[in-house]
């Protein structure tokens, strides 16, 4: 545990020396992200909504900064998001969300409830997410939109497989976790870290051709409502953090209307090779 964190709840009643201020600065939470990455956006929104003080450190995936020796000292996996809280470094977005929810006392209980059963259910959704919704959404967007940006061929067969996984994941979200009258996963009326993580993943579908997006999301009315509920519960930060995605969406639309492919877009969009 970061020693600074142990001082929560204590008001600072004395002024700090320069050395102490420098020490405090070093202990400040650093969040390493690329805003084009879905899990990075989830961490940023979470910190902003909960008033967590942090420094955003840009790791430009397009420039392969995640592979630099300096960054690999912080995250040997060479991926974003990553945090450094004092001397404590952590990667994997779900582990980070859990840590932040537990480590910062200002975070409201609904994000990661103290109740063991509700917490366990949230963990269950988060574990499921990686190999279902995330795999389906990422693979579909790569093989329908992003591949040429990285010098790869679009792969319709991989896209078709991914669409099946994506659509069945969206159906499961509706029939299992959104089945009641609640506004959020697990029937709640306030969001948890699972809502934030999953909705940020779905947001990348903004990059699709509108027909594809409507075909995939259109049948899932409850999912569409839940996305709106999550946006509303986290405004204005949700939209602010997603600005980069909306800009990319506009450029892809322009490119499509000119009948081009996306080969030359990577530099203009600053897109990473893996998102
Ligand atoms: N399971 C990880 C996934 C992290 C991940 O895939 N990060 C991507 C961006 S979304 C990345 O850093 N890609 C660059 C690379 O792998 O070189 C999490 O949830 O944090």
Automatic annotation (TrEMBL):
What reaction is this protein's catalytic activity? Answer: RX + glutathione = an S-substituted glutathione + a halide anion + H(+)
Q: Name one GO biological process term.
A: toxin catabolic process
Region called Disordered, residue ranges: 255-275
Q: Which residues form the GST C-terminal domain?
A: 115-252
- Listed EC numbers: 2.5.1.18
Q: Which PROSITE patterns match?
A: GST_CTER, GST_NTER
Q: Show the CDD domains listed in the entry.
A: GST_C_Theta (cd03183), GST_N_Theta (cd03050)
Sorted alphabetically, the keyword list is: Detoxification, Transferase
Kindly name one Pfam family recorded for this protein.
Answer: GST_C_2
- Which InterPro entries does the record associate with it? Glutathione-S-Trfase_C-like, Glutathione-S-Trfase_C_sf, Glutathione_S-Trfase, Glutathione_S-Trfase_N, GST_C_Theta, GST_N_Theta, GSTT1/2/3, Thioredoxin-like_sf
Keyword Transferase recorded: yes
Protein family membership: Belongs to the GST superfamily. Theta family.
The identity of this protein, by name, is glutathione transferase
Q: What organism, scientifically named, is this protein from?
A: Rosa chinensis (China rose)
